[in-house]
Design a protein that fits this description.
Protein name: DM13 domain-containing protein
InterPro entries: DM13_domain
Strand content: 35-45%
Number of domains: 2
Shape: elongated
CATH topology of the largest domain: Immunoglobulin-like
Helix content: 10-25%
CATH architecture of the largest domain: Sandwich
Order of helices and strands: HEHEEEEEEEEEE
Organism: Amycolatopsis oliviviridis
Strand order of the largest sheet: 1-8-5-4-2-11
Number of strands: 11
Radius of gyration: 21 Å
């Protein structure tokens, strides 16, 4: 009888450990892709403005660009930061291709982009701004940066796994004149 009780406690402990591990690591995300294809953010126009003498709104201006490199996971794609006519900033990931994972974020950071394992853990150490949760691990998507974001303070973008504090990939930003 005592042996059955011990086996039941051990079995319950194993079930709880497996459930916690599945929740924490979410291994199924390695095989599940989420593709998001958002259009380039363009200014809103009305039918009246095209017929009247009022000039059409300007397209967003590109203020910074970069190309993603791989860190913890194979990652590729481009990054552009766009400034709308109203001054708002949009971080755009283009042709993103990375692994899916738990709690992925898009960070605008002050950290340098280092190749290889040296660059895996540096992006949340200093100044950084979260643009939000990664919408999908594939495709092109837009992230509105918080009002008042000072681009002079930031030099890179990272696809950041907040659960494990590791970069999946990152891009150094080149400011455009």
């Amino acid at each position: 009888m005592k042996r059955k009780r011990v086996l039941a406690v051990v079995a319950a402990g194993l079930v709880m450990a497996v459930a916690a591990g599945l929740y924490w690591f979410q291994p199924w995300k390695l095989w599940v892709n989420e593709t998001v294809q958002e259009a380039l953010p363009l200014p809103q126009t009305s039918a009246q403005s095209t017929e009247s003498a009022v000039p059409a709104p300007k397209k967003p201006t590109v203020v910074a660009t970069g190309e993603l490199i791989s860190h913890e996971h194979e990652t590729s794609g481009g990054v552009r930061i766009l400034r709308a006519e109203d001054g708002s900033l949009v971080l755009r990931l283009e042709n993103l291709d990375t692994s899916n994972g738990p709690d992925l974020r898009v960070l605008l950071t002050a950290a340098p982009v280092l190749p290889g394992k040296d660059g895996w853990f540096v992006f949340d150490d200093g100044a950084h701004v979260s643009a939000g949760k990664l919408k999908g691990n594939k495709g092109s998507q837009n992230y509105t940066l918080p009002a008042g974001t000072d681009l002079a303070r930031y030099s890179s973008v990272s696809i950041w796994c907040d659960r494990f504090d590791v970069s999946f990939g990152a891009a150094p930003l080149t400011k455009t004149p």
